[in-house]
Amino acid sequence: MTAGPAEALHSWMPHSPCGAWCLPTGDALPKVSPARRALRLATLAAVVLTGPLCALTLSVLGPRGRAAVIRGWFRMVLGALGVRLRVYRPGALSLAPEERERPRDRGVLVVGNHSSWLDIVALNALQPVRMLAKAQVRHWPLIGALAARAGTFFVDRPRLSTLPATVAEVAAAMRGGAAVGVFPEGTTWCGQATGRWKRAAFQAAIDAGVPARPVALRFVVDEQCTTAAGFLGDETLLTALLRTAALRGLVIEASVLPLVSPEGHDRRSMAAAAEAAVTGALGQPEAEHTVPEVAAAA
Fold first, then answer.
1. What is the DSSP string of 163-204?
2. Distance (Å, rounded) from C-alpha 161 to C-alpha 147?
């Protein structure tokens, strides 16, 4: 389970130059004791083992109940690792009520920057989403089974011929009211640099007639952005997990940005608008441009 497994390359295949050299070295960040790390990992294991049971309950719950269970489970994952979640809505106070939220029965494409395995956890702690993931994830022990049970869409990236069918499947789900989560960079970047966004998922949003919800994610320790939570290059998921479990005071800051309507856009311009919103939020001073909404902590 690596961040960048060997795959057949083609012009569409995402590639990131980021790797272990982007991570902080030595004792650059505050860390918890070995005993606290062990406790965190044990707690996380217990939470993960409840995943199949939670998945079984989803079939007997209504939409709000399912959303509450999924959101609660992912928040427990964050809590097990001592990770806090802060949510911001830049510019929300200036929006008309109808612009702030989408109707509950309308689908949406949730898009954001990608630097860590925690990005998926953070998005689902905010709003349950059906993720679009590379096909290899389906074969990861336990995680792959949970992802499939949660309705993840799997894309076979080396086989471009399968992409139109995946786009059609995602569009159909959003047309039916699903929220679908996508990281258009296609692979992880360290956060100090970002990749160009792929546009296929935005074609699904246009075909379904649903908006995109940009979400900007950054990781902070001691009020300073850090790459320590990254899942980069050829490192394993276990390596990234152990590094995260050792951090003291890790905070995920999620800026939930205004919807991007598909009206008047093709996939190129819609992707560009969403990408600009995310990169702009990541580069803007927090105090001037964000409005605190909630803070959830372990």
1. HHHHHHHHHHHHHTT-EEEE-TT-S---SSS-PPPP-HHHHH
2. 23
What is the band of 91 on the pLDDT scale with cuts at 50, 70, 90? low
CA 139 to CA 237: how far, in whole Å? 14
Residue spans of alpha helices (H) in 14-162: 34-49, 51-58, 63-80, 97-100, 118-126, 143-149
Percent with pLDDT over 90 in the chain: 49
- List the beta bridge partners of residue 85: 252, 296
- pLDDT score recorded for residue 12: 56
Specify burial of residue 288 (Cβ count, 10 A radius: 0-12, 13-18, 19+): exposed
What amino acid is encoded at 213 in this protein? R
Residue in 189, 198, 248 with CA at minimum distance from that of residue 217: 189
Q: Tokens 């004792």 label which residue?
A: 27
Rounded to 5 degrees, what angle do the CA atoms 208, 179, 87 make? 135
Task: Give 126-148 as a DSSP string.
Answer: HS--EEEEEGGGGGSTTHHHHHH
Burial class (CB in 10 A: 0-12, 13-18, 19+), 106: middle
